[in-house]
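Sanity check. The docking grid for magnesium ion depends on where the pocket ends up, so I'm generating a full predicted complex first rather than guessing from homology. Inputs follow.
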Amino acid sequence: MDIHEYQAKEILAGFGVPVPRGGLAYSPEQAGYRARELGGDAWVVKAQIHSGGRGEVGGVKLCRSEEEVRSFAATLFGRQLVTKQTGEPGKGVYRVWVEGASDIAQELYLGFVLDRKTERIMIVASSHGGMEIEDLAVEDPDSLHRMVIDPAVGLAEFQARELAFSLGLKGGQVAQMVKVLRACYRAYRDHDAMMVEINPLVVTRTGELVALDAKMSFDTNALYRRPEIAQLRDPSQEDARESSAADNGLAYVGLTGDIGCIINGAGLAMATMDMIHLSGGEPANFLDIGGGASPERVATAFRTVLTDTNVSVILVNIFAGINRCDWVAEGVVQAYRNEGLTLPVVVRLAGTNVEAGRKILEESGLPIIAADTLADAAEHAVAARPKLAA
Ligand code: ADP
Ligand code: MG
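Predicted complex below; grid placement will be based on this.
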């Protein structure tokens, strides 16, 4: 789960990371008021969306007057910002952060990620901040320093100092960097984070280290024990189909093809998507209905898949262990009756109560295309698509 920049800054500041003073606004007027409240003569106004790369697309601006703060904020509210990371249709701006402008001497990159190879938290840092890490890795890979943290020891002071030196920091900045590194590590560990990123972490003209941007994302499987993090969720930043599916106990991920998939188990769903590709088709989504799915949940799965207007055929692939094929079949019939379904539906059932399931489908008299194997199902689905106009 992702959170906003201002929320990440608040968490990191709580662990001792220096951040600029700022305030949140829900309207242009409030943004202007925040600038006055903060004082000074230069402010940075920042669209709060769950994405980086905002600066490049006009989501971040240095403003020199209260009026400029207000008028720039007015252009942000309600806008869909499309960044390199969001893709189309972008993310809506409903909150704006106003903070005091810093006088930047140098921009650094600092990231904490989970390194799956070593199964440990890894720090990635570079003396060339400001750019996104993906670009840094391509354009200046030699500037990247990596350090793995031993969970039994935590981030040792000497390690943090070593990293600070390798970034070229000197004197008092080394001590500040050690403090920032240890704070980020604690914030990561204590909140079950998956990622902490400060980009840029700047050195100001007066030699202070300040986090000008901050990003955190969290392990969804750990949210049950982090209620204070779970409440930071912002549904306006999520794919509406994915969040409504999650609320119904379905794991749904929208894709770009036209074959709607309803499958049980993440592994089978992945295998089915591979088979669709092999047969020359493109899946419209990943959808795992989970174990013990009731007919109602199957019908909800249909409804979710049908919200995608690109879908031209639906493929149901169930290998029932905990699930029951008869319940799934009832769900398919319900969906046909209640959703006014007109698209072709290919169904492959195997496992618990498969005979009963097939019987329900046959007796329903509905135009369901039955398939025996996974390969069969994928081929039928590809063949059942309406022929595209040449
Ligand atoms: P994003 O990564 O989404 O583009 P950032 O918060 O990193 O957004 O802002 C983009 C750039 O704007 C930063 O790299 C930095 O140069 C500048 N910037 C951001 N906040 C401030 C600030 N408080 N003072 C001065 N410059 C800032
Ligand atoms: Mg940034």
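Relevant for the grid: The two ends are 42 Å apart (CA to CA).
Also worth noting: The chain is about 35% helix and 25% strand.
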